[in-house]
Amino acid sequence: MSASNKRNSGAQGLDRRSLGEGGFTLIEVMICTLILTTGMLGIAGLLGVTTQMHFGAREAARSTRLAQEKIDDLMKLDLDTNLQVGVGGSLTANNANHFESPLEGITVRWTVAAHASGNDDLRVLTVRVENLRAQTYGRRTELSTIIRQW
User: Fold this and answer.
1) Total number of domains constituting the chain
2) What is the maximal distance between C-alpha atoms in the chain?
3) Across residues 54-58, what is the average pLDDT?
């Protein structure tokens, strides 16, 4: 028998654990389970926050879109004959011809003011959308522009 064969035959009689081929102990499995559970709970918490942020961002985008649509609609109207673009309105109260509620929890208000230049064909338009469905940001969106009689 060669020297390598003698070593191999002697190693076969040794306990498998002494060679590092043993399995996981119950304590090791429990510790790994605890670490995995802690990580999964952290991910679940982030999922909840992410969902709320997504909802808030969607409502903020809706508010901006509604404000822009209202500006586009008002820019098409005749300044001399249409009451919606007549000087007046309020951003805090529902004045006749200067507010609407397109969806539940959303109010669109606008003001129309004479332009500082004194030109009757120019008006300063400010549109405010109050979205009670929005979270922290996007609850109040305000856009201003100058509209002109063509």
Assistant:
1) 1
2) 114
3) 89
